[in-house]
Every structure is written in C-alpha cells, then in structure tokens.
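FAQ: What does the model actually see?

It sees only this:
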Amino acid sequence: MTRHNIPLGRILGIPVGLDLSWFLIFGLLTWMLAVGYFPGRFKGWSGVEYWVIGAISAAMVFVCVLLHELGHSLVAMRDRVAGGRITLFIFGGVSEITAEPPSALAEFWIAIAGPVVSLLLALLFYQARFFAVGYSPILALAEYLALLNFVLALFNLIPGFPLDGGRVLRAVIWGATKNFRRATMMAANTGRFFGYAMIFLGLWMLLSGSVFNGIWIAFIGWFLESAAASQIQQTMVKGLLVGHKVSEVMTRDFPSLPGETPIAEVVEKHVLAGGRRSFVVSQLGRPAGLLTLSGIRQVPRDKWATTTAEQAMIPFASVVTIQAGAELWTALEKMGRDGVNQLPVVEGGAMVGMLSRDDVVDYLRVLQQLSA
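And it is asked to produce this:
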C-alpha cells in the first residue's frame, strides 16, 4: 500500500485501492448532481432525494470506472501480461499493467477492452430506463449512468497516450512499423497535443464565463499532457538503458555492519560522516538483513543508543533483490514498483553487490553524454 492508497481488497486476484483524492471528487460530484444536474433535469423531488440520488450516482460512477479498468486487467491476464493493482483516484481510475504486451495485437485488445466495457454498460443502463419509468429517481440514475459511460468510452478513445485511444494508436503504429519505441513516442506526442488542446479549450471557456467547466477541462488537459510527457521521458530512459545489465552499475564494495552495532553509532559514523544510505547487516559473517534510512527513522531517536542494527533491519528473506544479470531497466522498474531506493544484487544464491537509484541516475548521465 502506498501512503495515499487505501486497499479495498481483491477482485479475481487483482488488488483494488482507493486514492485519498477520490473523496474530493466524490464530494464534488455529489454536490454538482444534487444541486445542479438532477434539479435541472427532474423537477419536484425533495431535497433529500436529490442528495441521496446524487451520492448514489457518484458512487456508481466509480463502480463503472472500476469495471472499465477490470476490462483492461482481465484481457491483460488472458494474454499473460502481468497486471498490478487498480487504483481509483480523482480522475477516475488506472489499471497498472506492469509488463509490456507481447505483440501489437495484444496491446490493441488490452487497450480497447476498457472502452468496450463502458459502451456495454451504457447500453445496459439505457435499456434499464424502460424498467424505471414509474419511479423518476431510478430513471434519473439509469439515464445519468448511461450517458456517463458513453462519454467515458468516447473520451478514452481520444487517440493520445496514455488514454486508451492512445494505446490503440500505439498498437496500430507498432503493428505497421514493427517498432515499439517509435510507436510509443508517436502516441505520446499525440497525447501531448490533445493535452495542450484541452488546456487552451479550458482557458477559452474560463474567459467566456464557464468558470468551473473551464478549470476542470484545463486541469484534465494538464494531467494528460504531463502523463504523455512522462511517458516520452520514460521511453527515452528505457532506450538508453536497453542492453545494459545490473552487473555493470552495481557497487561491489557494499558496507556491512555487525548486527550488534547501535543505531546511534551507525548514524554518527556511517550515515553522517560517510554519507551511506543503506547497510548490509551481518551475523556470523553472513548477510542477515538490510538496514536503510527508512528503517532507522522508524526507531525513536531517544532509543538509537539501545537499539541495534539487527533489531531495525529488514530480514534478508523479506528483502527485494535483483539478479546480477538482469536488465538495468528491469531493476529500475522494480525499485519504483516496490518503493525502494536500493536493491541487493544476488548471483548463485550469494549477495555480490548493491544497486541504488543514485547509481542508475549517475549511469544515465554518462550514457546521455556519450549519446549527445
């Protein structure tokens, strides 16, 4: 779990989480529906009915988004592509696909699955309207969700990465050129174009008097442009790191401390004086665990003198490691996915080095200078 993510459980083995930003958009959407959309569309309800249907509709929006993201994840699982958690947040949701699709066709079906689910939901709720004619709140809910899912599908089909339409575009270009990197760059640049277009549209609406809608559209455009720019940077970094192994960058002279060393001594002699950020803790001459700055911070400062490195370390059996022959890009992805800044490097069951995020960044600078 990340710091801002609340785990909700698993669906078909897929972890589902709720980002704290979801509560902001849930409250805002409930308010908009209760005081604006439903009173303007359906007259004569009580104030309580407007707020209750508004809250139910806002909650159902995220149920629909969850089903949309499950569509991506389930097709990815079918194509044997590793999938991570689904997170619901301020812009809707995101399904973390933690590996690249094996082919352009697999990428196409994974990308299109979400909009297809949304279109099916739109059709389902549209048909449900005919069974709710006698009770206007249920009719209103079905009508709104039908429209919402239709708009969600259309918006996601905009051909700009990282939207689903951008991934469809990447699949088509990938299939035509047989070059995944070029396809990603073209789809991401298209995403930046649409992001800037939405920013300008939002500013124009803002100056025209539609303040809230203008700000919201500009904000979505900014998010889209930022995500696309991030994808371009990631693709460039990956292009530099392709073919380079962990063994080329890792530090073989990694610091080791006896397990009985007090935390106060570690901080004074090794962290502050030596600038070290992580340490292998040894017992009987063999690695027993990993002590990091994060682990040190979890120990109250007044107990540093009486707490040993062994007591504050992460046992080696629980430490995330990387093979010496692994791709450097794979190691960087692993650091990001697991939220760590260093990885012990193992080979043949023994620890042979330490790889830190700083090591990778320094190596990247060298590669950039050589390729300039």
